[in-house]
Amino acid sequence: MSQLSAALQKRVQGDVMFDTFSRGRYATDASLYQMMPLGVLSPKSEDDIRAAIDIAAEQKVPLLARGGGTSQCGQTVNEALVLDNTQYFNDILELDVEGRRCVVRPGIVLDELNRALKPHGLWFPVDVSTASRATIGGMTGNNSCGGKSLRYGMMRDNVLSIDAIMADGSKHHFGPVGETSSAAFAALTDDLLRLGAREAAEIDARFPKVMRRVGGYNIDALVPKDMPANLAHLLVGSEGTLAYSTAIELKLWPILSEKVLGVCHFPTFNQAMDAAQHLVTLKPQGVELVDATMIALARDIPMFRQTIEEFVTGKPDALLLVEFAEEDPSLHPQKLRQLEEMMGDLGFSWSGTGKNWGGMTAVPDPKMQARIADLRSSGLNIMMSMKAEGKPVSFVEDCAVELPDLADYTAGLTDIFDKYGTRGTWYAHASVGCLHVRPVLNLKLDQDVKKMRAIAEECFDLVAKYKGSHSGEHGDGLVRSEFHEKMFGARMVENFREVKTRFDPTGLFNPGKIVDAPKMDDRSLFRYSPDYDVPEFETKLDWTDWPGSGGGFQGAVEMCNNNGACRKLKGGVMCPSFRVTRKEQDLTRGRANTLRLAISGQLGPDALTSDQMADTMKLCVSCKGCKRECPTGVDMARMKIEVQSARAKKHGISFHDRLVAYLPRYAPWAARLPFLANLRNTLPGFAKLTEKLTGFTATRDLPTWSAKPFKDAEVANTAAPKAVLFADSFNRYFEPENLRATVKVLAAADIPVQVASAPKGERPLCCGRTFLSAGLVEEAKQEAQRLVDALLPYAQQGLPIIGLEPSCLLTLRDEIPALLPGKDTELLAQHARMLEEYIADQEDNPDFNLPLTSPAPKVLLHGHCHQKAMGVMSSIEKTLSRLPDTEVEVVETSCCGMAGAFGYGVETHEVSRKMAELDLAPAVRKADEDTLIVADGTSCRHQVADTTARKPIHVARLLELALQK
Questions:
Q1: pLDDT tens digits for range 539-549
Q2: What residue ranges define each of the domains in the chain, with the CATH number in brackets?
């Protein structure tokens, strides 16, 4: 590997990564497999790719092109040189709006492409559920389909041509057969067309007639029908085994802006399957299944719970989501009426009972449609949110049959699952007879691996019985390539091998996929191989919700199934560091994989406390976006605490970390001499002079210590308080005006408030968060216990505990119950409320009256990451809706980037600013002068002030401004 690395370093401009940690992050995709790559290259140009192919060929090592790394069947893992196209090789080369076509690099993500196309009224409609991270190159290699293939077809139907480099280093344009660029390419074309002519009868006899067939090579493209053969269609679905795509020409479609959704409820799963063949006669653009298991699991996921409550009626065993998008939107009401009538004709009514209960719920609201679509597209990950050792496993997941056979096929498959003592989870594309089904198995157990093999054999026999396709969407990879002979016959497999040999005689590109594949149950290739073991180790937080070593830490880490939802570049919060760097290292998935490999000994001894692990975690800002937005619940912010703790125990902490961690301890003393404490900001050159010692960048001023910090005695004790105020360290010592505004606002609402205080003679209360950021868990526990002791009596009286700083108040709901598990902290968590939450809670309280006027014509609101993670944003919006004649706009942002001390660090301040520049800073700069900028987070306010000319205020100050005089 050293020779390979050295050769690449000399000839490429992209990032070359051959260390064990980097290779480990590319050893898995979203399948059950793990294969350690030889090295990783993120190419910056086509020249880099050419060089890599030449070097790989010279040194006789395989090469694997990789996009988002979300393959379900193991297509994107191999003992090869991996080329990650996503970081740099991801631009739009050409856009022809009038001709409705574009040419793109393979690394561009589908959502990014569609965002660029939207202003032109166009989109690329192969809308896979992984659109936020799926690359066009990966989708092309996999012949992806999406939920609207009934109308728009698959990738093969929408790829016009491909520029690709072959194993011999030559580059060719693959498209409709016609003029050729060279004699060599003409010879290749002639050979392929002769193969098509020779095998036309066999292709007609053996290729399934269902729309969803993506198994094997598309050699049916070599049999011309109404138009010339298109050689690009042979590369589509080839899983990177034939050539390396460098530019892909796509067919574009006009956006149909309006659509309607009908949610059809069924009392039994089998009835839903039988109904699908009838519902498609209404010509919807998609019919998607949601089964009872998915409904139940989604109810337990915070980001989906409210959506389920709003659109699901009663207790259906299955839902079919029927979507219409007509060119003439006036036809939509008619379509919904026809759907309702058809449900009635099929025997379902809301007044019916037993097998006659059911009906259709219309969803015309676009926002609700989007929320339901988000839930459906997260189906796989919702299914994978099971915390037990057994998980839904992908291996017979996307077989496709004709719609009239769908009910019988699913019933037969259910019988197979029952035979082997497991059950399946079902969802997805009922409109094309391609349901995603995953039996629940524990692949760490040899007996369950044997069950998987037996289920696969019997399932594929069942598919063959119905003349279906064993691979209907997710391709072949390591899971299904072995079964081509069962599905296509020995002669067709030889045809596939002939194509591979003609393109790639030395097996350079992604060997072992489609042809000459290993056994699908070869456990040496599994993520959890027979020798996989996680020895017991000490952890500091409560992980008992999960199984495994470290008190359950192992199980929590293993919840990451590599689905890649954290790779999204817009919308939500996670993963803000990745949005800046585009590096797998700086990603929830990358960190989780690194942790799993470390605790299982696959990265060498002491990997958990190593410098490489510290680098892996360095840009994690503990935003908690993954806690809410990762569908499998990977909470990297909490995991980082464990890593920091282990490292602090072994290596100690830096002076910089001590300055941050111990702030609550020295704050009372610094507050007595604010002039001295602020000297770093005010004395010219002092910040630069102390930069190396303190680790704080000289390019930013630190928060200013207040000359009049908040004192508990400012609020007189009352005999019968209705609320308790937790004065956090940041607002107490730096922005006490926020606490004073809160007291004033609550007084205006006639809410007597008491400040939670430490015992006399002790320093003020603190949540312990600063200690957690440095891994000083025992010190954090001490602070947390002091806070619990002070607040518990109030919680036991049922009083709300109100706080202002999200990262501090919400610690009572998140970290403190994990630090000090038990009934006391559970009770405190129930009563901990942000100020806006408390006011929103009074919506139906006739005795609560808060007289407000308009503080400004418009408010631009930025939510703190922890508010988003804990589902608080809706309460803020509800509270601000009380402001008369005031427009409130919520900025769609990820993390602001300041993240406590992160934005002040010498090594991290540049990334911090780049995070702000993604969405937040540009939105603030666009705001009118009379728009008030509002943010609850101390860090958020400082970031906005540092990166724009505006000074935000806390919501408490906003409400104070709005109080009627």
A1: 999 999 999 99
A2: 1-254+503-511 (3.30.465.10), 259-453 (3.40.462.10), 858-962 (3.40.50)
